[in-house]
């Protein structure tokens, strides 16, 4: 019970066959350490399923906490690589062993989905907005909240998850549903909650515009027009309409433009449109052409910059294809392929004992990839003269740290032929001390700072 141990948490291979991962979930690990203890009800249940255990063990559990544990880790949100220990835990062997499953659970999905989000961001580029729309497809409510949080860290700009916005301060974005449009059948469906006089004034502007300026009379769906009217009336400053309930070109687009023109008459500006099906590149270009045409016709140049949001099972390959087709999309709503990480369902982090009472420990295996690096270690990131990271150097804490301007021989831990001399222009110790003396040892950054 008194053995002092060191454990490393790391992953063996980059996710998605890529070249990096984003480290996430550390904040939740700190919260877990802060609340780590066994309640009376916990112990009572364990006694039921383990009736032959000595009473002294239950007394030990009742006094157990993380007061003797220290935790060092790479900061959350950093780019990280295989074999590099993300977290180093030190303390009583049985206590740290009990942390294993929870820590792996908190780090594995968080880092995986943050990495997935970063890959989407890199593929889409910095010029477009990325919105996380994955709550309906996530693995349960907890999975939905985690996805919203860590996709934001990974580079997304907002979420449709209102609870995530409330809890984490993530910008909330969204549109109305197809069902909202379907629920209206004609322009005669006037809500009793809307001022009749104001609504009539609204219709007097919109109806002629729809029938004479954009398309011949009768070609647009009047129920859809009424839905857009109602939405614009309720949200005049944030009106963004979903166009594909019936036909984007023949109905949704002209109906939106009519409502946008009406809003303009009342001193408001619509935001844009959303496309959720069909040929997204083609439809986005057609929408942009219509925006430019109407902007010139009505001398409203700001309409040329209407936002086009696209969704519909978007993945990395879709983004690449849309780029090649020269789309006119400003924002992507991405759900299923983002939050479920369909290309790879798990990151594969492991939690390995590397030292006991100052003596190194090493897991041997016929599979070289499963051999862990023994001993208590530090990790340094070495930078070149132009400020770019060259490599992460893993070494024992007992070894002399690398120095700026001094050449050092670095080697791959398992492939002998991979070695090189490096002369760093900057050396960064990646580990920060996050937990010790039964408490947080430094302030933890906000979600916005991590992003």
Structural commentary:
This protein is α/β, with parallel strands linked by helices. The chain has 2 domains: 163 residues, nicotinate phosphoribosyltransferase, CATH 3.20.140.10; 219 residues, Aldolase class I (TIM Barrel, Alpha-Beta Barrel), CATH 3.20.20.70. The protein is built from 14 helices and 20 strands. The strands form 5 sheets. A 7-stranded antiparallel sheet has the order 13-12-1-5-3-19-20. Strands 7-6-11-10-9-8 form a 6-stranded parallel sheet. Helix 4 packs across helix 5 and helix 8 crosses helix 10. The longest helix is centred in the N-terminal third of the chain and has 32 residues. 36% of the residues are buried.
Global geometry: elongated
The helix count comes to 14
CATH class membership of the largest domain: Alpha Beta
Beta-strand content: 15-25%
Low-confidence stretches: none
Helix content: 25-40%
The H-level CATH homologous superfamily of the largest domain, spelled out, is Aldolase class I
How far apart are the first and last residues' alpha carbons, in Å? 40 Å
Number of strands: 20
What structural category do the secondary elements indicate? Answer: alpha/beta
Q: Mean pLDDT, as a whole number?
A: 92
Under the CATH scheme, the architecture of the largest domain is Alpha-Beta Barrel
Instruction: Give the strand line-up of the largest sheet.
Output: 13-12-1-5-3-19-20
Major beta sheet summary: 7 strands, antiparallel
- Stated plainly, the CATH topology of the largest domain is called TIM Barrel
Number of domains: 2
Query: Using only CA atoms, what is the Rg?
Result: 28 Å
């Amino acid at each position: 019970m008194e053995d002092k141990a060191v454990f490393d948490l790391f992953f063996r291979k980059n996710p998605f066959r890529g070249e990096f991962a984003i480290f996430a979930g550390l904040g939740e690990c700190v919260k877990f350490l802060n609340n780590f203890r066994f309640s009376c009800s916990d112990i009572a249940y364990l006694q039921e399923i383990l009736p032959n255990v000595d009473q002294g063990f239950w007394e030990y559990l009742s006094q157990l906490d993380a007061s003797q544990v220290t935790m060092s880790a790479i900061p959350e949100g950093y780019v990280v690589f295989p074999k590099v220990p993300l977290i180093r835990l030190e303390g009583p062997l049985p206590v740290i062993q009990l942390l294993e499953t929870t820590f792996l659970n908190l780090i594995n999905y968080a880092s995986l989905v943050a990495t997935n989000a970063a890959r989407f961001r890199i593929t889409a580029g910095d010029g477009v907005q990325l919105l996380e729309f994955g709550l309906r497809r996530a693995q349960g409510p907890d999975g939905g909240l985690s996805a919203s949080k860590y996709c934001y860290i990974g580079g997304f700009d907002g979420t449709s998850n209102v609870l995530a916005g409330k809890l984490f301060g993530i910008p909330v974005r969204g549109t109305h549903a197809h069902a909202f449009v379907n629920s209206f059948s004609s322009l005669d469906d006037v809500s009793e909650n809307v001022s009749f006089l104001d609504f009539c004034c609204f219709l007097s502007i919109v109806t002629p515009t729809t029938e004479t300026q954009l398309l011949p009379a009768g070609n647009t769906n009047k129920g859809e027009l009424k839905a857009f009217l109602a939405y614009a009336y309720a949200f005049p400053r944030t009106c963004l309409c979903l166009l594909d309930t019936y036909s984007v070109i023949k109905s949704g687009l002209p109906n939106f433009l009519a409502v946008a023109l009406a809003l303009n008459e009342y001193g408001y500006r619509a935001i844009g449109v959303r496309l959720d099906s069909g040929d997204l590149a083609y439809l986005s270009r057609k929408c942009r052409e219509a925006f430019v045409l109407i902007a010139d016709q009505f001398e409203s140049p700001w309409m040329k910059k209407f936002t086009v949001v696209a969704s519909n099972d978007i993945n990395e390959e879709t983004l690449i294809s849309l780029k090649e087709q020269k789309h006119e999309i400003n924002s992507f709503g991405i759900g299923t392929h983002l939050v479920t990480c369909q290309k790879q369902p798990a990151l594969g982090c492991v939690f390995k004992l590397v030292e006991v009472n100052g003596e190194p420990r090493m897991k041997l295996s016929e599979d070289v990839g499963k051999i862990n690096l023994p001993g208590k270690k530090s990790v340094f990131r070495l930078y070149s003269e132009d400020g770019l990271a060259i490599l992460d150097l893993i070494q024992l804490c007992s070894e002399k740290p690398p120095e700026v301007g001094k050449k050092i021989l670095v080697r791959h831990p398992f492939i002998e032929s991979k070695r090189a001399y490096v002369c760093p222009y900057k050396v960064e110790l990646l580990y920060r001390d996050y937990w010790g003396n039964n408490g947080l040892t430094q302030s933890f950054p906000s979600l916005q700072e991590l992003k």
